[in-house]
Amino acid sequence: MSTTAQPQQDMREILRPYLVLNPHLRVNVTVINWENAWSKISAAADSGQGPDLVELGSTWIAAIAAKNALEPISLQQQKEVGGDKVFFPALWVTTHQHNQGEVFAIPWYAGARVAYYRSDLFKKAGVKPNEAFANWGSFKQAMQKINGIDFEGKKVAALGYPGKNDSDILHNIAPWIWNAGGDFLSADRKSASIFSPETMQAISFYTSFANEGLVPLSALEKDSVQIESGFFTNQYAVIFSGPWVLKMFNTPKSKGGQMGTVAAKNFGVASYPAGIKGNQTFFSGSDLAMMRSSKNKEEAWNLLKYLVSQRAQVKFSQLSGMLPARLDALYDPSLMQDPHYAEFVKQVSLGRHYPVVPAWAQLESVFRTNIAKIVTTVSGQQGAQSQALIKRNLEQASRQANVILLGERR
């Protein structure tokens, strides 16, 4: 996928050491955008014709494996890459279906979400970051204190988060749901659990920031990229985003980055504020898998094994800004020398992934659509009317999700 700024060139750089050692091989790389990757890969799985090796978003493995399109990875092969213990637990669970042991992919890189905050504005407002991000109550108080603070003659909003136009809206709200004790599916993954008091509490709290003017209503018309841009240009004191923001702060402006800007010189990272059930963050990434249709399975496995090695994952992280999926690569000295990266890594130890079920792509669409409706319609509403809207949309999401799950079991 087009995860780096220049994916073809970057993949050539990652592959170069491997091809030097294997001059008889030629590796053809096809780059596709995230926006149409699912439809293309799903079509290849249905047709039985695809590449030898394929990158899959971490939520996709169960669905593609259910089509009988992926080559199982044996226990011996798993041992060759270090086994489950060398990878982030939150990513290893994506390599196989829930409650099934057969592995179909190996984690390649990871993405997680943390809070980015303006350290200079926090200091000016007299807010201590460790206290601000301690829990929901202290976070709300900190945002109230910071909201409207002056920076170079302009008022800065306390918090920025996107709304209905953002494809990542579910990723943004998932940690709040988990930290309230809610979830999307039941423990056995057979029914929806999103319609619950815990989820209602989480969404009520999340939307209260816009209702109380701590998130500008204009932010709800934006997507994640525009919100990040707003943080770079001093519009918001806090946003929640991934490691690619660190990459932007370390990239010169001549190459499209933010190095040297006021925001780049004055920021910190923190965990999500803890709810009553913890302070987990959303964790995702990409895995690599072999297609069952491959005519070059031995070569495909050897290449996969190289790409998930410590050396290749460190290199990919340097080029993309994403986190390595391997723990030994995660703590590589070349990455840890950046104090912000080291702090980021410390904050994501409680990463959590979505339920791993074949129908997740359909379920995610249902959850995302209904939560987008909530964020859009609840903004500016208060009290009983707001609660009724949240309840109605969560009930609808639950009903639609259960129809999908029932169809999957038939």
Tell me briefly what this model is.
The protein is α+β, with helices and mostly antiparallel strands.
Q: Your description of this structure?
A:
- It is a single chain.
- The longest helix has 27 residues, at 383-409.
- The mean pLDDT is 93.
- Strands 1, 2, 8, 9 and 10 form a five-stranded mixed beta sheet that branches.
- This protein has 20 helices and ten strands.
- Helix 1 packs antiparallel against helix 15, helix 9 (169-179) crosses helix 10 and helix 19 (360-378) runs antiparallel to helix 20 (383-409).
- With 410 residues, it is an alpha+beta fold.
- 48% of the residues lie in helices and 12% in strands.
Keywords:
alpha+beta, five-stranded mixed beta sheet, 48% helix, 12% strand
What topology does this entry show?
Elements: H1 7-21, H2 34-47, E1 53-57, H3 61-66, H4 75-80, H5 89-92, E2 106-112, E3 114-118, H6 119-125, H7 129-132, H8 136-146, E4 149-151, E5 154-159, H9 169-179, H10 197-211, H11 224-232, E6 236-241, H12 244-249, H13 262-265, E7 267-270, E8 281-290, H14 297-307, H15 310-320, E9 323-324, H16 327-330, H17 333-336, H18 339-347, E10 351-352, H19 360-378, H20 383-409
Parallel strand pairs: 5-6, 8-10
Antiparallel strand pairs: 1-8, 2-8, 2-9, 3-6, 3-7, 4-5
Helix pairs in contact: 1-15, 9-10, 19-20
**Euclidean distance between termini CA atoms:** 33 Å
The residue-averaged pLDDT reads 93
**Number of DSSP strand runs:** 10
Measured by DSSP, the beta-strand proportion falls in 5-15%
Helix content: 40-55%
Largest sheet: 5 strands, mixed
Shape: globular
DSSP helical segment count = 20
What does the radius of gyration come to?
Answer: 22 Å
Would you list the SSEs in sequence order as H and E? HHEHHHEEHHHEEHHHEHHEEHHEHHHEHH
Oligomer: single chain
Return residue spans where pLDDT drops below 50 for at least 5 consecutive residues. none
Briefly note the structural class of the backbone. alpha+beta
